[in-house]
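Marked as duplicate of an earlier ticket. Keeping the data here for the record.
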Amino acid sequence: MTDLDDVTASLAALKNASPANLQAHLPTALRQFRFIARPDRRELAEGFAAWASVSAPTPVVAAYALFFQAMDRFIDEDLRVSLQLVMRARATFAEHDDRDGLGLSAMMIGAIYRTFGNYDLALKTLWEAYELLKASGKHPVFLAATANSLANVELDMNHLDEARSMFQVAYDESTRADDFYFRIYGLQGLARVQLRQQRRDEALAILERALELAERHQHPLHISNSLTELASFQFSLGNLDEAEALSARALDIRERHRLLAGAVTNCLRLAEIRVSRSRCDEALPMLQRALAVAEELDVKPKMAQVHQQLSQLYERTHDLEKSLHHFKTFHALRDEIEREDSARKLADARTVFEAEAARKENAIIKAQKAEIELTNRELQATIDELTRAKIGRKAKAMTLALAIVLFIFQDAILGTALRLLASNNYFVLLAVKMAIIFSLSPINRAIERHLLKRVVRKRNALALDTATT
């Protein structure tokens, strides 16, 4: 079966699963969902959400439908929409205390915050996800993803020991889950830590393991990423032949599979190698190729990098007019990028603020709801106690009335009993009187139970009428 078939079958099973069996189908659907092509992935997510909005058997299932939508947008890097969707899902998970859902949503929220550059909130949310998913044990792939995000934040903050520890967790958990995807990310992260710690031999061995694993699974993205990482490593050591060969292989794979943003990176590295070897006539076509791709993608940071290298190349070949043109273009692009970055960071900050405000509001609502439920339970207990007391008094009054009737008609009752027993013995008469006296307590309890049942029936009928209307 293909990944699409697996996810389709798992989602169909989810629609009919009981709450207790929800986690039996969910891990497979989430795990394979990452590898489905974009059009099919979007169609599945939207179809599941449309079904859940009408037919979801529980609010938790509807929340997981939102999570699939958020995951689809996250993969497409539509992070603001993804954050809005996953925050809505998280609120429902929190309301119904679904620990797996809380862990998964915290994982995605933390990864988004990391991308936005808000490391404090990212770490806080990712650690929450890590603890929840570790305690669950049902989603090792996403525990690995959480550890990978945590490790990258620690690496960006230059906390190398913490980064190495989390990259190791990502590698171990993905190995346990037989998930090559995050296993490769774990290896590449461990290699970057080793490089920063000047352990080049260990870094090289780890990068080669990552490349071998990517090639074994024939995954173009990871193969090209691993080749590019190895090329950067060899370039840093001054091994230009190896760096050039590895970059050329990565470029070929990325162009064949339309991984074009990465292809620009490879072109820039190849041009840099050729310039350093004074092969400027070979570097120029490579930079022109990179510029064409960057402009096609409209990725301004890449365009700026290309113009910067073109300026340096023309300066080296003494074509100062073209060097100045590209230098001016580079600075114009850089200014534009800075303005757009400022606007994006402001929008990201606003999105994060709104998301956190919504989370805090949901937490307050949840606390208020819990307080109201506690008050309602206490009130109901008081009402029940008063009802039982009232019923007890009514039952005692009815029993007293019965006792008065028995007292009034005791002679007739005793006479009838003695005739039936065919005896006039004093002790028989005494036994009949005692039987009448001792029967009053069971009669009182029977009356009390009967009255209580009537009250319960009336309360249930009222609740049913309220629910119907």
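See parent ticket for discussion. DSSP finds 20 helices and no strands in the chain.
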